[in-house]
Design goal:
Blueprint (H helix, E strand, L loop, with lengths): L9 E3 L29 H16 L9 H15 L8 H9 L1 H9 L4 H24 L11 E3 L11 H21 L4 H20 L3 H16 L4 E3 L1 H12 L1 E4 L2 E6 L2 E7 L4 H4 L8 E7 L4 E3 L5 H8 L6 E8 L6 E8 L1 E4 L6 E6 L5 E6 L7 H14 L4 E5 L8 H8 L6 E8 L4 E6 L10 E5 L6 H11 L4 E4 L7 E7 L13 E10 L15 E2 L38 H12 L3 H18 L2 E3 L2 H25 L20 H18 L10 H4 L8
Parallel strand pairs: 13-14, 14-17, 17-18, 18-21
Antiparallel strand pairs: 1-5, 2-22, 3-20, 4-11, 5-6, 6-7, 7-8, 7-9, 9-10, 12-13, 15-16, 15-20, 19-20
Helix pairs in contact: 1-8, 2-4, 2-8, 5-6, 5-7, 6-7, 12-13, 13-14, 15-18
Amino acid sequence: MHKTLNIFRVLCLASGITLSLSPSAKMVTPSYEDIPVLSPESQHSTACSRIGNFFTRAHYKVVDLNADFADRIIERYLSYLDYTRTLLTKNDADDVYRHRDLILRAVKSCDLSYPYDLYNASLKKRFEKYSYILKSVEKTPDVESHAKIAVDRTVAPFASSKEELIRQWDAEIINEYDVQILNGKNDEEARERITKRYRAALSKLAQTKSEDAFSTFENAFATAIDPHTNYFSPQDTENFNDDMNLSLEGIGAVLTSEDEYTVITEIIPGSPAERSKKLKAKDRIVGVRQEDGSFDDITGWRLNDVVKRIKGPKGTKVILDVERGDGANAKTFAVEITRDKIRLQDREAKGEVKTAYDGRRIGVVSVKSFYTDLHKDLDRELSKLKKEKVQGVIIDLRSDGGGLLPEAVDSTGLFIKSGPVVVLRDAVGNELVQSDNDPSVSYDGPLVVLINRLSASSSEIMAAALSDYGRALIVGDTSFGKGTVQQSRPLQRVYDMTNTPLGSIHYTIGKFYRVTGGSTQLEGVKPDIVLPGLVDDEEFGERTEKNALPWDSIKSVEYDPVLDIGAYVPKLFKQHEERIKGNPVFTLMSEELSRYRTQKRQQYLSVNLEERRKLKAEDDAFRLNSANIRLKAMGKEELKSIKDLPEDFEFDDVLLNETVNITADLCAAQEQHLYKKSEQSVLQRFAPPKNAH
């Protein structure tokens, strides 16, 4: 699974209570002395040793613990400690590189004192920055300043001095103030909002734990090898397992952290939270009471710590103190919930029927991840669609970051009689063919796979196999380009003398190859018919990842292509082009991406309020025009102001709608018996490109 694309949602299963704090309640601002001085805990030595053994002995990539590799670790570690480069000076960074021997010592012998020293120093620097901002916003920032901030500070050079850092902080303060003013806040409200944000940040800073420092360094080590190798803390391990199994025990609420508050962003259908009929999105949880009467005021807590209090075994109860509304309209109430086993149904494969331009009924199955038993759910949805008399099917893999490799094989097997799906190669060059051995086929009709730039890993395996077999037409944007295979392994051992959890690792054990011998690594899966991309391929994709493995190829394996879809692409493409010619929404999408790229090329942004007003006015005008073009296409009334557009409004999915129409064209081609097996040899048809790298 691609970690960058796999966002772990915090899903809780819980019950409810009542508190006395209001949204306006003031938090106690931590002092310098409240910032912890962290040191490794006893379990970290064991975890560190096992991580190092696995990464250096079992990883696909040969890891040579030399000075060059130490520099890669340092580069990753500094990016984690100071992502926006607003804490460290160039001298600070250079000093770390001068101590690369201590970094290697931490990896080789698990002497973590130096990495922890760096982490502790970053906490102090962060405290200094946040405190400076809090002091500065006591008065109105200088909005007439002509200072500038870097649009992307992750690639900006480190500041040359402390004075330059402070100038950056000053510009940040003005920028944050500008944003608040431009969003309708007055001076007092804007400064209060910034103050609350940084007080909450300081509060969370004071709650930093040893595990945070350990996890940060070990992941710097991991990603210095390749971008898909990671250490998961015990909490991250639990989240990962929940995500793969689509189930957990709790209350069924998706939570996020906003300033000092824990906020509900989503209620899982059918969950205890939904059954309570009392909780809504945007509610703030401010207190948690357990069955034994213990109570925690969770205002200002870290999200992970809140989740631990709310989650719990099936059948147990929890009481949540909940706040709803703002200011004088705010009210507080208690909700008691009995925890239960939650099935994350919103992540399951789901099918629906769409109608194409010519009246054909087309089935669409959305697959968001390759979780345990996906192929069973996919088979179920295909059966439903066949009962609905669909004439073609679309498998929507857009933004599917992957998951379990066996599910990619089994899911592909639903559309082919049998045969190889993907080839795995390990670190010593052994090649293992992963095949579908089940001759049954769940669906044998016209098939389209819809992908985009965020389709990765298992998504690419499935799309590539169905393409190489000629079983499916691929539509959309070139996929992510992740051609590596990872294995998850717990660090705990049965013979361990302690029950303290050690977390787990997720590391690359091989690369996967198409049955044609080519690799999706860096190259991705290229569509037969390209649709406008909503994601900039210069910004996202395996090519942009640090320490990504190179492209290569192997010999093709023997397989039996089903159809020669490629022969019909020209006609299908021509029909598609004629249909969207002059379509204002498709024209708009190209303009939006072009505009985004132009803005991204601008390295700096002025913090002058009047200049920002002009930019906002231009942006609002562009967004209003974009919204009205889409609304008109939907047959709805145009807006007079972009503020009139509801936050939860969903525009038509024009890319999916056009894919439905392309599928209808594919159906027509099949009805005309245009499908046939290719007379060209497999090696000729699917030979790796001469210019591949």
